[in-house]
Each structure stands twice: as structure tokens, then as C-alpha cells.
Amino acid sequence: MVRFIQRMIWLLLLMAFVLPQARAQSAQTAPPQAPPIEPKAIDILKASCEMLSAAKAMSFTAVSTYERAARNGQPLFYTTRNEVMLQRPDKLRVITPGDGIPDEFYYDGKAMMAYVPSQDLVAVADAPPTIDQLVDAAWEKAAIYFPFADVILSKPCAVFEEHGINSAFYVGQSKVVGGTTTDMVAVAGDNVQAELWIGTADHLPRMVRVVYPHEPARALYQTEYADWRLTDSVDPATFRSEKAAKGKPMAFQPPGLREPPPAQKPPAKP
After folding, report:
1. What is the pLDDT of residues 214-257, one digit of tens each?
2. How does pLDDT run across 45-78, given as a tens digit for each residue?
3. 112 neighbors 134 (Cβ within 8 angstroms)
4. pLDDT for res 22
5. Cα dist. 179→26, 84, 206, 225 in Å?
6. Is residue 81 classed as helix, strand or coil in its secondary structure?
């Protein structure tokens, strides 16, 4: 019995001495945690932004999918296709064949024009002198939203500076998205979480998926990019349409918003 007690005392002393050293050694050899913002991820983003901002003129196709809840709460997904042509700093054309009612948008640095071919309706308004300003003006005047807006701005990376980035890391490569090899990068800020697929060779975006974590529905927004073509200039006639200009005029305002009827004069007294 005495020998058993001696052995137990010896084991307890040994554990008291060995365990702290083992823990200290484990802490020293544990790999350091990855930084919240990886330089490789930032380099990929910057290379893409520089490629886009350096382009004097470009065209691409953007297919955007957005989520909306049905009356029973089930998520439904809707898709639009935009065929985009632009020349910096003051020319833009967006043809939207569907889904929804097809429409066309033209901007030449002086005026912006929205045209609905199926009804031959056209709305025209004065426009600011740059594409950067146009993006905000189109939304403020007529609730016209371009889901690809970030890639046509003069400083595409400004969106990250504006919202701030809490984390950015390299996910890996894909050979499926966009029919080419892409680098996948994940970024997150206080109000947005996004994953981007960027061409490894040409640094052009192929797909962007975004979730706004504080949005009640936490809906998914996705835009796929294809048919990229970067050039020096575009025929100025591309950014106007004679047919659209001759359409039936309508107010340049959000869809469904009608002008109040003119006030009626009170009936004459007998």
C-alpha cells in the first residue's frame, strides 16, 4: 500500500513538471494565424482594378441574378442580361434584352436617354459630364441601377476603400467559371461580403457574388461577366440611337411614378 501511494505521488509530481513544458512547447510550435488581410488577395484585386481603370474603351456582357422572397417566404431568383459598351470618360450604352421588358440606355456626356422599344417610349434628361457621376444621377432621377457599376467607374477599387475591408483572402483557382482559369478572392467588410472570380491571365472579373449581412433577407446578388473587349476608342454613333430619339416622350422618372393630374378649377358660382 505504501509503495502504491509513493508511485501515485511520483506520477503527480511528474505531470506537474512535464505538462506545463509540453503546453509551452506546443504554443511555440503552433503555426501563426493567417492575417485577416492577405497581401496576395489585395494584389489580385489591385491588378484587376488597374486593368479596368486603364481601359480607354471596353465592352462586355453582364448577366446578373438577384434574389427576392415569394409570398410564402421561398427565395426566388431573377436574371437580367446587360450588353455594355463604354468609352471613358463620358460615353455609355447599355442594351438589356431581358429578362423583363427589354430596354436601352444611351449616354453621350450631355444627355441620358432611356428607351423602351416594345412601347416606343423614350425619356431624355440632362446628364453630368462623366460616367462616375452618371451612375448616381441615373439612380437619383429614375431609379436606374447598373449591377455592373463598380467595373465601369474610373476607380473600381474605390468601392473597397469606401466600405472598408476587414478581411481578404485567397481562396484558390477555378477552371470552370468564365471558361478560363480564375483566381478566387473573398473579401468582407462591416456591411458586405463578397467573393470574386478574376481572370488569372487577363485580370478581368468573371463573376462576383455579394451578400449584405445586415440586410433582413440576406439575399444573394451575383453578376457574371463575359465577352470582354478592351480597346482605344468606339464609334461615337454607338452612343446614340435615331430610332430611340424619335420615340414617344415620357418623363425621366422611376417606373410606376405618375405625374399628379393638373389641378381642376372650382366650378363657377351660379
Report:
1. 887 778 899 999 999 999 999 999 999 999 999 999 999 987 65
2. 999 999 999 999 999 999 999 888 889 988 899 9
3. yes
4. 47
5. 45, 20, 9, 11
6. strand
Contacts of 24 (CB under 8 A, 6+ apart): none
CA atoms within 13 A on the CB side of 128: 13
Reference 228, options 152, 172, 171; nearest CA is 152
In three-state form (DSSP H/G/I as H, E/B as E, the rest C), the secondary structure along 99-148 is CCCCEEEEECCCEEEEEECCCCEEEEEECCCCHHHHHHHHHHHHCCCCCC
pLDDT grade, residue 30 (50/70/90)?
low
* Long-range Cβ contacts of 130-137 (<8 Å, 24+ apart): 130/89, 130/90, 130/154, 131/86, 131/88, 131/89, 131/90, 131/91, 131/92, 131/107, 132/89, 134/92, 134/107, 137/112
Tell me which DSSP letter residue 212 carries: -
CATH number of 39-249: 2.50.20.10
Q: What is the Cα–Cα distance from 161 to 10, expressed in whole angstroms?
A: 61
Query: What are the residue boundaries of the structural domains of the chain, listed by start?
Result: 39-249
DSSP conformation letters of 187-204: EE-SS-EEEEEEETTT--
137 contacts: CB under 8 Å, gap ≥ 6: 112, 127, 128
Q: Which three cell numbers stand for residue 13?
A: 509530481
